[in-house]
Design a protein that fits this description.
Length: 503
Amino acid sequence: MARYKHTEAENGQGLFLTVNLQEQLLPETFEYMLNDLIGKKIDISIFDDNYTNDETGSKAIPPAVLIKLIIYGYSKGIKSSRKLMDLAKENIIVKALTGDMEPHWTTIANFISGNSEKFQEVFVKVLAYCNELGLIGGETFAIDGCRLPSNASMEMSGTKEELEKKLAMYRKMTEKHIAKHQKQDESGEMTTEEKQHYEERQKQLSRQVEKIDDFLKTMEKKKGQRGDEIKSNVTDNESAMIKSSSGCFQGYIGIAVSDKKNQIIMHAEAVGSATEVEYLPSLLDGTLDNMKEAAIKTPEGKKATLMGDANYFSEKNLNFCQEREIEAIIPDNQHKKRLRESNGSRFEAVDFKYHEDEDYYECPNGKRLNNKGIIPLLGRSGKRYQASVKDCRMCSLNSRCIKTKKKIDQCDKGRQLFITERNEPGGVCVEMRKKLSTNEYQDLYAFRIQIIEPVFANIKYAKGLNRFMLRGKKKVNGQWKLYCIVHNLSKCLGEYNQKRDTA
């Protein structure tokens, strides 16, 4: 029979090791840099205002310990407060970062949810350090949004009428459940387990009824961009019903403005909205404020450029960029289609010449389109110009003209041209389309994906942010800022090590 050595554990032998926590933080690693920066090169004294235990009360966990723990955990894809607590207990690197402190998960959760505004100040300080390392160009930026689910139930979404129907349904379910429970209870056929199950179910239904009823008492109808009512949410009414390639979900859009040089996030904000177009002005102003506070300047003789996709295209946004002396490169939603048809196979509104003195348009074949009045169009007003059906049927260019639902020989009207703020002659929208029809601006716009998409890939896939854990715009915005801080700090590692080696 084979003989084996006995392990020390089987003999009851203890193992005593001397561990120097600081030696666990190896140079040239993210955790080494994090430990060196937080509280030293990146000042976090703003969190001292949270505490009033100068003379009485127990001692608090230092904010530096909590920030190091949260940032390190987020960098490893760990965002749950309970898992962060376990990390502080079990991981030797985290023990080194926290000085062997083990904060409770409620302390971690309260710190994350209660310091959203202060995280903005930390974000700017990290931004200033990125600039100190020479990671920011300050000339070309890209803006985009990352759609993420929130800690809210889609089942609790609806218009006021829909929620009233849902409340009536839950009340009816409650009544049936009580009646069924009483009937079985009177018959004496109910076991203790069944009785417990029915009581739990009754509590759940009662909570749902109470929650919806309380919400409806104070509910104010949410209005969409077109003025119609959109769905509210009982769980988190600051979130929104968002459409994505994988379907609809209740959540927020995490918007970020990224610098071209090293994909450093210049400003970030989470919004509870289905669209992003209305937030460009606030994001741009926030970016300029952050740059000013962090002493970041656009290179002398250069003009700052902002690139965005079609979600940000509007006359208001383009005018706003002009007011801030920022060159915007933002295509409309037909830009890709125009590029595919760049061989001139199809005419557009810009190919029609406007005669202001008589208020009519001249088509590429020299035919006249007269003003037929103002009509509502997708929530906006626009002018309709129409050619005669005779001119259109005899036109040799009708196969390249503006599309109609019917073939031209089957139409009883001539081609129609709708003019709104997006295609009005001389407007900023038309000028933007002209810019993006040139090779120069197409080449510039091609950089947009390289500037912003790697940011979201890093945050969503490398750092594991697949949903927001908190409720309410303020708290969600704080968590989004924290992840953007993690992203920016991870970009600092190479330059930090190089600077440290040469010091």
